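Entry:
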Amino acid sequence: MRPRSSSPRAPSRLTLDDLGKLAPSSGPPTVVESASALDLAPRLLGALIVRQSPEGIRIGRIVETEAYLPDDPASHSFKGPTPRCRTMFGRAGLAYVYRIYGIHHCLNLVTGPEGWGEAVLIRALEPLSGLDLMRTARGSLDTRDAALTNGPGKLCQALGIDTTFDGEDLLASDRLSIMKGDAPPERIVAKPRIGITQAADLPWRFLLEGNHHVSRR
């Protein structure tokens, strides 16, 4: 079990250049505007999601992601911009937050050129700091450490993320941001995405092998 500190060292903020360097390139390092969600999704594993509120700070390490591309029939952007998914066509680095089943929220990082329509779904986190706040936010639901943030709806509830965060700049915001993390020691594996009916066979879900906080192994 990874040791947790009640006063963690403040993580460093990611920049567009940092995100761009996560994507493969045969030339000079690119920025996230030209990096595909499919390239970035596995490389975001190990980065941190930091939620700051008057109640305190909550931090989770990204352990599972999914990529959604413009020509992907499972993507909200497949049929073009709509009021629901217009943020997905915004500039790279924005949070695309939507609600499913009228209850749960999902957090995505917009990638690619503006107007393109692609994003990385943050599917699961390993909670590192602010666990008591996360348990309170989850209410009477299962609040075991391994179950706090092991799904997109769970992590949004634990961090207090809803559609008011749609369009938030994750590279600049003080209340919700993505920060640098250590390179994950676990092996990264690719598997089919979950909860979709179209293009369900594509191995565009990425997770840290053996990590107990992923949504499904």
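Helices lie at 16-21, 37-43, 131-138, 145-148, 152-159.
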